[in-house]
Specification:
alpha+beta, 5 strands
């Protein structure tokens, strides 16, 4: 399985995991001029942007550790652009990470908070 297929499979597992936890699916692989958001979910009134990271092992660090400050900024820019396009900016927004390592899924709600001006 190549990296893209592994990522798509991981996103499917993350979506199922979150839906079982009471989240509602809004979109997947949303493209903006600033980049892509893996999953857009909803929990209550909050729009949750989810970065999904998949690793077969942690020999090079955990999947969650790969969500660097630079990656956070890129995801935040894409998510905020999406929120503006969809008219979601008046709702609470949150950034989660779902880290998948082998068969283990680790959901990190509110994994990061974007700071500064993004668009």
């Amino acid at each position: 399985m190549n990296k893209k297929e592994q990522g798509q499979e991981g996103e499917g597992h993350a979506r199922s995991f979150l839906e079982k936890a009471g989240y509602r699916f809004l979109a997947a692989n949303t493209q903006t001029r600033y980049g892509e958001v893996d999953l857009v979910m909803e929990k209550g009134t909050t729009v949750v942007f989810v970065e999904v990271r998949v690793r077969g092992s942690n020999s090079y660090g955990s999947p969650a550790e790969t969500v660097t400050k630079a990656k956070q900024k890129k995801v935040a820019k894409a998510a905020i652009a999406y929120a503006k396009e969809q008219g979601l900016t008046k709702r609470p927004l949150r950034f989660d990470v779902v880290a998948i390592e082998g068969n283990k899924i680790n959901h990190i709600p509110n994994a990061f908070v974007p700071t500064g001006y993004y668009l």
